[in-house]
Amino acid sequence: MSARPRIVLALGGGVARGWAHIGVLRTLVRAGYAPDVVCGTSIGAVVGGLYVADKLDELEIWARTLTSRRIFGLLDFTFGGSGLFGGHHLAKLLEEQVGGVCFDTLSRPFAAVATELETGREVWLRDGTLIDALRASYALPGVFGPVKIDDRWLVDGALVNPCPTSLARSYGGHVVIAVSLHTDVIGAPEDPSPSNDAPLLAALHEEAKAASGDWLRPDRLILQHLFGPGHNGPGLSSVMLNALNILLDRVSRARLAGDPPDVLIAPRIAPIGLLEFNRAAETIELGAAAAREALPYIRHALQRLT
Question: Which own/partner pairs from 51-55 qualify as long-range (CB within 8 Å, at least 24 positions apart)?
Answer without folding.
Answer: 51/25, 52/106, 52/107, 52/108, 52/109, 52/110, 53/97, 53/98, 53/101, 53/106, 53/107, 53/130, 54/107, 55/97, 55/98
